[in-house]
Every structure is written in structure tokens, then in C-alpha cells.
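Format notes (please read before filing issues)

Several people have asked whether sequences and C-alpha cells are stored in separate files. They are not. Every record keeps both together, in the order shown below: the sequence lines, then the C-alpha cell lines. Line labels are part of the format and must not be stripped during preprocessing.
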Amino acid sequence: MTTYSEYEQTAIEVALAAIQQTLNTNDVMTSSEQVRDYLTIQLAGEPDEWFGVMFLTSQHRCLG
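Then the structure lines:
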């Protein structure tokens, strides 16, 4: 399990807020790299490995 300093945790929270704002405004991730980066940051603080599925339309919009 990775332990983050207070500074690193704050940086992660700021990055997540920026990504969430972009998703709320844009509602589209235009590449698989953007999805990977989003999920990497989103799950960075989790102590366990995760498996999940994101269902996207052909226009890269998340369903649900």
C-alpha cells in the first residue's frame, strides 16, 4: 500500500477536482489515455486492486 504525504494527497485531490470539473463541462473523454489517467488518479489512494467496467457510447460518453 502506498502512503502519500499530506502534500501529495492534496495534489491528488486538486487533480481529481479538475478532472471532475472537466467531465461535468465536457462529458467526454476523447482517448483511452484520458480514461487511464482519470482512473489512475481516481484509484490512487485505494489500498486494494480494483476491477471495474466503464460503459461508453461511440462518442466516448459514459453510460451511468
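For reference, the curators noted about this record: The two ends are 30 Å apart (CA to CA). The CA atoms of residues 16 and 31 lie 18 Å apart.
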